[in-house]
Amino acid sequence: MTDISSQALRGRQKRLQRAYIDITNRGNTKNISELIPRFLDNFEIEGKKYDYIGVETQYYPIFFDNIFRSLGFQMYAGNLPSISGTAPRYTVLPYLIAIDSIRVILFDHDPRSLFAEIADIQPVCPLPIMGLCYSTWSRVKEREVDDWEVQNQRKATALGLGFLSINSTTLKKGIELSYPSKAKETINLAFKLGLPQMLSLSVENLAVYGTFQASQHSWPFYDRHFVSMCDNSITRGHELDKGELTKIRPIEAINDPEWFLRELRELDLIKRKRNAFDISTRGNEFIKQKITSTPQEAALYNLSVNLRDEMKDGFNLILQQLKIAKPTINGEIELFVDDIDSFSKVRNIARSTVKESILSEDFVQMKLEEILGELRHRRDWGGESCDLYASDLKIRGKRYRAAFLLKGSGTKGKLTIAKCGKNGDQIQRLFKCPADIFIIQHISEIDETVIEEARQKTLAIRAKNPKAHFCIMDGLDTQRLIQIYSK
After folding, report:
1. Nearest 10 degrees: CA dihedral of 267, 171, 96, 191?
2. How far is 94 from 185, CA to CA, in rounded Å?
3. pTM of the model
4. For the chain, how far is it from start to end, CA to CA, in angstroms?
5. Which of 103, 142, 190, 283 is the most exposed place for a label (fewest CB within 10 A)?
6. What does each of the 487 residues of the chain score in pLDDT, given as a tens digit?
7. Bridge partner list, 56
8. Are 123 and 80 in contact (CB under 8 A)?
9. Are 302 and 286 within 8 A, CB to CB?
10. Exposure string (b/e) for 173-183, b if CB count within 10 Å is 16 or more?
11. DSSP secondary-structure letter at 455?
12. H or E element: which one contains 401?
């Protein structure tokens, strides 16, 4: 059937797409796998007919279905609720998403469309949405320089989206690896493509370009401000993005800020104003944050202020359909001291009955070791990953490994990120410990930036360890613990 007309081929592909949509949301993987020969048939025809340009990737959702089901996701194809309302999406599929209990992956080959869709959908979605772009054309003949793909990858990078480069050989292999019979081979393919790194809930992105500075910056905006914000971010103890999500090294953006800002200008997020940059109409409400963090975060922040809870019902119905538990807001990742069985006595003493007092870090550490039954005292030497590590922390009757960051009288006033270690990197080192529970303690107040950093780090770890939680133990909670366990 290689002599089939282009119109007839597109008709075949669209009918097959409809068949895929009809069965994918039912979760019957056997019926889905039965579509593979038809997808391969279309693939062979298209590859021979258009070998000069390649196979159009969006017509083969079975590729993403096999890979993401093998990685533990559920798949959904159909319309999604959004701020602007559920309207028809004039592409091959209404929407294609992969979803698990902690995140949603939204697919598209066009970075601009994907960015806009995340901004529209995220406020009514109870889970964080990550955008994953893919090659528009899975090339049959390799090109030395693929200008189309390079351009889309740079746009995705500027917008904080992942980008998956796929050629026809990779696409065909992913179609053939039927789930669940070939799940192990499919996972190997996913690792080869770098998907596990892309799918981490990356918090390195949040501070790459100076989140806190940019949100307060006045415009116009110059190249030197961009570099300065990067430097300020590093000084505050934030890690730079290693490029795992966006496939770009931050040093490239820092060394060539004109290029990075030009990308944002081409995306109509900023505009040239004499020799400086100013915010465009489109980017006015979120570009200050979006140069510095993921577009999803700013879109959520700006669009969800007046959001009515009932607007989320549509997305919760999808979660129920896929048998994914509806997440809770706070209990999902944050624990309070009162939630920890190993510290259960604090439930008998209210925060209002205690006052902060000066305690040395060593005293707090020894008291915690006593409470937790740790037999050996761990001495502080300044370069350790954590101040205290416990392997038998009890929460709701279950055992967890816990890593502590402890601050005593040596740290004056409110605990900020800059005060977390000599190099401001103690939080980063804490979250690299092989633990489930990450506890940050101080004898006084703990700044909200520290709490948000812990929250984002925990979200990132949850992509690999669903048990991960964080706990903030401020001066009042520290006093409750010390007093009740000293009686």
Report:
1. -90
2. 29
3. 0.51
4. 85
5. 142
6. 557 888 899 899 889 988 898 888 776 667 888 999 999 999 999 998 888 888 999 999 999 999 999 988 899 988 888 777 655 555 556 788 998 876 788 999 988 888 888 877 877 777 777 888 999 888 888 777 778 888 888 787 667 678 898 999 999 999 999 998 998 899 999 888 877 656 643 322 322 222 333 334 444 555 666 566 555 544 443 344 443 333 445 555 566 666 666 665 666 656 666 655 555 555 444 333 333 334 444 444 444 433 434 445 666 777 777 776 654 433 468 899 988 999 999 988 888 889 999 999 999 999 999 999 886 776 655 557 889 999 889 998 889 999 999 999 989 999 988 888 765 678 888 988 999 999 999 999 998 888 888 887 887 787 678 889 999 999 999 999 999 998 7
7. 137
8. no
9. yes
10. ebbbbbbeebb
11. H
12. strand 398-407
Question: In terms of Cα–Cα distance, which of 426, 399, 394 is closest to 410?
Answer: 426
**416 touches 449 (CB < 8 A):** yes
User: Taking a C-beta distance cutoff of 8 angstroms, is the pair 296, 305 a contact?
Assistant: no
Cβ contact 191:82 at 8 Å:
no
Peptide bond into 180 cis (omega under 30): yes
Buried b (16+ CB within 10 A) or exposed e, 352-368: eebeeeebebbebbebb
- Tokens of residue 182, six digits: 């070939």
| Pair of tokens at residue 267 | 């995306």
Q: Can you tell me which residue has the tokens 């890979």?
A: 67
211-220, long-range: CB < 8 A, 24+ apart? 211/238, 211/289, 211/292, 211/293, 212/236, 212/449, 213/292, 214/288, 214/289, 214/291, 214/292, 215/288, 215/289, 215/292, 217/288, 219/277, 219/278, 219/279, 220/273, 220/274, 220/276, 220/277, 220/278
| 3-class DSSP assignment, residue 315 | helix
- CA within 13 Å, CB half, 219: 17
- 318 and 76 in contact (C-beta within 8 Å)? yes
DSSP state of 415: B
Amino acid at 147: D
Q: Where are the domains of the chain?
A: 6-202, 205-293, 334-484
Cβ proximity of 214 and 289 under 8 Å: yes
Asked if 342 contacts 371 with a C-beta cutoff of 8 angstroms, the reply is yes
The H-assigned helical ranges of 374-485 are 426-430, 448-462, 475-484
Report the 10 Å Cβ neighbour count for 404. 26
Instruction: Tell me the two tokens of residue 244.
Output: 């795992």
Tokens matching residue 382: 């300044």
